[in-house]
Amino acid sequence: MTKARGSRSPKPPARRKGSPPAPLGDPLEPLRTKRWLSEAQRKAIHMGSILVPLGLLYQWLPWPRGKVEWRWFLLSLTLIAMAIDVVRIHDRRIGRYFRQFFGRLIREHERVNLLGSTYLLIAALLAVEIFPRPIAAAALGFTILGDAMAALVGKAYGRRRLFGKTLEGSAAGLAACLLWAAFLAAAGWVAWPVAVAGALVASLIELLPIPLDDNLGMTLFAGYTMKLLGALG
Fold first, then answer.
1. What is the model's pLDDT at position 98?
2. Nearest Cα to 131, choosing from 222, 217, 200?
């Protein structure tokens, strides 16, 4: 039997020699989604808190200055934030108004838990209390910059997943931590090996699925690592 005409699908026409290639996807397209823009708004607030470690390092404000004043300052902010969270979680009406006002800035698990900003304040208070001032500032900087960049890049360009995180996001977080480490070392606040070790530990904790909020985990593990290495050195 002879094959019926049209049984074969026609081949696509060959591209003419010298014609322009097919247009590629817009690399900025992932940055225009509502999901990413909501995360960018959230992390913009998060990254704004870099003023805390910078203030710890350079003491440019008339108050707070010194460990005692920073302790009371951060303790006051932490207690206020925790009080707001408790009322928000247990009063449905206030919680509803809170969600309507902040919208997508609040993650699903934060509806019945402390906000990430509250955890960051707790981490800052513990860091100031436990570590020397440069180490506390370094650990907080790793948390603020590393966590923010990991989330932003991961949500936009993350493809390969490990432990529920994306490798692309974790790589971006590591790069941000290393840049902060370079700044600290170049300015003479922390020795190069100590700063790099803190950056690596903070990035590892961000990636691993430990049962601890990243703001706390990254700050405390990186801080203890740098404190130990500083003592050994």
1. 76
2. 222
User: What is the C-alpha separation between 99 and 142, in angstroms, rounded?
Assistant: 29
Report which DSSP code applies to 166: E
Q: What is the pLDDT of residues 48-105, one digit of tens each?
A: 999 999 999 999 888 998 889 999 999 999 999 999 999 998 888 888 887 777 766 6
* Nearest-angstrom CA–CA distance, 52 and 74: 10
Share of the chain above pLDDT 70, in %: 88
| pLDDT(44) > 70 | yes
- Identify the three-state secondary structure at position 161: strand
Q: Residue ranges of the domains in the chain? A: 41-232
Nearest to 184 by CA among 223, 231, 232, 126: 223
CB 219 within 8 A of CB 123: yes
According to DSSP, residue 119 is labeled: H
197 or 11: which leads in pLDDT: 197
